[in-house]
Design brief:
The chain is of the alpha/beta class and about 190 residues long. The protein has a domain of about 120 residues: P-loop containing nucleotide triphosphate hydrolases (Rossmann fold), CATH 3.40.50. Helices cover about 25% and strands about 30% of the residues. It is built from five helices and nine strands; from the N terminus they run E-H-E-H-E-H-E-H-E-E-H-E-E-E. Strands 3-2-4-5-1-6-7-8-9 form a nine-stranded mixed β-sheet, sandwiched between helices. This is Protein ImuA.
């Protein structure tokens, strides 16, 4: 029996991720794709992506950044980009809850454009329309050891419309730009991150 791999995410669908490891999870998703990547967030946010930090995941030259006025604008940009399909991966940082209507619009746009959407959400901010919902966390005991250059991460599915929910423990390999799967377990779907 082969170990299930978490990537690539199902094409033509929109997915969600929450937790302290959302950015690293999104970067791992970027590494599993080819072509340009559109990353959308609100323009008032001071923090942003550092291209040097992305190099161990993917070529930052593939990244297109868009800054919306607010979450409504961010969702509109995501929807149009997904529907167009020119960009195979569209990522949006959404600091407030996504309504069912907005979530459904993203799903329909992703299906039409055969693109993949990823929403970076708060733990209770997702939409019922999402194909999968993930909780991503670093595993700190590994990070605190001296000489560690490959972070250990836990990616747990809270929702999966296409099959059972699973939890992966991975270590990121910067040389191959892929996650090395250390363990995978079935887990019960949950709306509360563990």
């Amino acid at each position: 029996m082969t170990t299930p791999h978490p990537f690539p995410l199902r094409e033509g669908r929109t997915h969600e991720v929450c937790g302290m490891g959302t950015t690293s999870f999104a970067c791992a998703v970027c590494a599993s794709t080819t072509g340009p990547i559109l990353w959308v967030n609100e323009r008032h946010r001071r923090e942003g992506l550092n291209p040097r930090g992305l190099v161990s995941f993917f070529d930052p030259g593939r990244l297109l950044l868009a800054r919306g006025k607010d979450q409504t604008d961010t969702l509109a940009v995501m929807e149009e980009a997904l529907r167009d399909g020119s960009v195979p991966l569209v990522i949006g940082e959404l600091p407030r809850e996504i309504g069912l209507t907005a979530g459904r619009r993203l799903q329909l746009a992703a299906k039409e454009g055969r693109a993949t959407g990823l929403c970076l959400i708060l733990p209770d901010g997702g939409s019922n329309a999402a194909e999968t919902r993930w909780h991503a966390m670093p595993i700190y005991d590994k990070l605190l050891r001296e000489g560690v250059d490959s972070p250990r991460l836990r990616w747990r599915q809270l929702k999966n419309k296409s099959g059972p929910c699973r939890a992966w423990e991975v270590e990121w390999n910067a040389k191959t730009r892929t996650p090395e799967i250390l363990s995978v377990n079935d887990c019960a779907p949950s709306s509360v991150p563990v």
